[in-house]
Design brief:
The protein is built from 5 helices and 5 strands, in the order E-H-E-H-E-H-E-H-E-H. The chain is α/β, with parallel strands linked by helices and 173 residues long. Helix 1 packs parallel to helix 2 and helix 3 runs parallel beside helix 4. The mean pLDDT is 97.
Length: 173
């Protein structure tokens, strides 16, 4: 069972379609209900396994935990978590409204914590699972007009690296 955040477009949609074609049972989360419905229909055609979609704003911690429980009830435990949801503003630093900076970090960074905390304990208990963090080359080198995005992706890379080191100690399986 593969859960992909930001599944209704871009990388998330393409990864979902590939996973479904390879026989995976895919659940997509996205904030855009109509596009998510279209993607779930495509997932059902692409694969043999049932596909699910849940509207979820990953920037909202309580919503993540609620939708995670709904997801597991409907589709079973998650074996592969793909933290893919992301936003980009593409504006110069001094042109970025404070609210956009906060929104970028809420989606691109803080959501990694909420979504992973929602599914990782069950993976550890089963001694099985994968957590995938989609970042960007902008997470290892700064990019003009992407100060908020680049910083949020630097944080995503740090989150992923730290989690992997911690899991080698806590749950080597």
């Amino acid at each position: 069972h593969i859960l992909i955040t930001g599944a209704a477009s871009g990388i998330g949609r393409l990864v979902g379609l590939k996973m479904a074609a390879l026989g995976g049972r895919v659940t997509g989360w996205d904030i855009h209900a109509e596009r998510l419905d279209q993607t779930v229909a495509e997932l059902k055609q692409a694969g043999r396994e049932p596909a699910h979609g849940f509207v979820c704003n990953v920037a909202k911690r309580d919503e993540v935990y609620r939708v995670a429980a709904e997801t597991q009830a409907a589709a079973g435990p998650v074996d592969i978590l793909i933290n893919n949801a992301g936003v980009v503003s593409g504006k110069r630093f001094l042109d970025l409204p404070d609210e956009k900076i906060e929104a970028t970090f809420a989606v691109n960074t803080l959501s990694l914590f909420w979504v992973t905390k929602a599914f990782l304990p069950a993976m550890i208990k089963r001694n099985r699972g994968h957590v995938v963090t989609i970042a960007s080359a902008a997470g290892i080198i700064g990019v003009a007009k992407l100060a908020d995005y680049s910083a949020s992706k630097f944080a995503a890379v740090g989150f992923d690296e730290s989690l992997r080191v911690e899991l080698r100690q806590l749950a080597p399986g």
